Every structure is written in C-alpha cells, then in structure tokens.
Amino acid sequence: MMRLADSFIIFIARLALAVLFLWGGAMKLLGYAGFISYLQTKGVPYVHIAAPIAVAVELLGGIALVIGARTRIVGLLLAGYVIVTAIFGHDFWNIADVALQHDAVVHFWKNVAIAGGLLLLAVTGAGRASIDGMRAPRGGLRG
C-alpha cells in the first residue's frame, strides 16, 4: 500500500518531468520551421515525419504525466524518446570545439538522468493523485 506522502512526492516528480516536455513541445510547435531546420542539421532521417511525432510525443506525453494516465507505459516511452534525442541532439562525439563539446556532454548526461527518472516513474506508477490511481483497486495501488 502506498503512503499519501509517497503519492504526493510522485505527483511532484510527474509535474517536474512534465514541464520539460510541455515546454519543449510548445517551443518546437511555436518555432516549427526552426525546429525542422535544426533536425536537418543534425541529420535526422525523415524530418517531415519525425518533427510532428516529436511535438506530439512531448505534448501528449507531458499531459499524460500531469494527469497520471498510463504512467508506466508513458514513462517507458518517454525514457526511450529522451535517449534517442540525446543521441541525435547532443552528439558530443561529433563536436570538435571544446566549449561546444562540453555543453553537449552536459546536455547528453542530463537526458540520461531524465530517462532514469522516467524509468523510476515507470516502476513506481503514478501514485494516488492520478487517473491511474483512481482506476486502481483500493486494496493496494499498482498503477
């Protein structure tokens, strides 16, 4: 059985992670042409397919985290997404300039840390303060 304090902490964690995706998705959508150009410079294949998928994953994933819907699977999917974006977007191994490379290394490992938080969320579930929590049987929260 999950304690109320645990559910509150999980709720705060969900919100903290969601802000990243909601903000990123909104900025990509608002600067869509620039986002397309950025993806092209990074050599992302099928940019005109990848870009709307990225925006949708970030916005819908962020919303799912906030409301706590399908949190375990959303956590797994977003963790995978964050690792893929780290590999394509923060490819420090391809950067010659030392200052730019350092910046990319920091961002790469931040993405790995975010993926770790999402994997923890996939294991713990959404907690009581969520749609998943409302669906769970009252004997013990599994969602």
Automatic annotation (TrEMBL):
One of its GO terms (cellular component) is plasma membrane. It comes from the Bacteria. Keywords: Cell membrane, Membrane, Transmembrane, Transmembrane helix. It is a multi-pass membrane protein. The chain crosses the membrane at residues 7-26, 46-67, 74-93, 113-131. The keyword Ubl conjugation does not apply. This is DoxX family protein. It comes from Paraburkholderia dinghuensis. The lineage of its organism: Bacteria, Pseudomonadati, Pseudomonadota, Betaproteobacteria, Burkholderiales.
